[in-house]
Amino acid sequence: MEKRTSWGSDFFGTLNELPPEPVDGLAQVLEAMGLQKTFKEARINLLKDLQLPRNGKLLEAGCGTGVSLQDISNVYGQPNLVGIDFTARFIEHARERARKHGYTKVTYIQGDARDTKMKDNEFDSTFCDKLLLHIGPCEAVLGEMVRVTKRGGTVGAVEWYPNFLVSTEMSDSFRKFNEIFAKAVYNYNVAANLERYFRSAGLTDLRSRTYLATTNSLDSEPFWRAFLIHQIPMFVHAGLISEQDGKQFVAEIESLNRKGEFSASFIVRSVVGRK
Question: CATH code for 8-274?
Fold first, then answer.
């Protein structure tokens, strides 16, 4: 497992420099990911595994647009929640979500999950959802989450391995699509190493879960088309795949989908540990 000492991030660390329109487009993809059934199942189980005490205070590091808020409410009732995210536009969306649904004990703030400026031992539980893939080093993120968690409290993370087992008519299309994520994300293999990161952070009593997200149709959930097709122009613009290869990949999976021969899957993992 590669150990990094200096702070870094992938393209998520640059979103505050962009105009609102492309950031809002990415926010829509995050919404689709948040509602995808396997990600949702993993998040709900993680929240239950945290065993947040009644009226306990919860921190979500890398809260994005606040898509987890409804699941937190379903598990724990009216949440006493603080969410922090580096992207200002995401925080605007999260605040609007909380206001719209009448959550009075929810606070969303812009900041860095590696240096939250919060007090030691402030929260009963902390968690992050698909954050460690994008910023790091993991030791800095988890160290900060542990610092602000009370002794005896819990820390959790949901992550995924962005390598799709996806049907294509040519194996080269499959390879070139998956290379996008190997190039683009900060910590590509983080999902495979969650337990080691958690133990290195001093967490004990680890509980891990592994899930398989799978579909036989691009239209079974909004996520699949949003992630596999709608993002291709952005990936082309970023130089992560050529326009020709992007169009070829989309044409192949659309063709297979029409013939009922399409399939796609990926792995999601979660770990909860105790301070």
Answer: 3.40.50.150
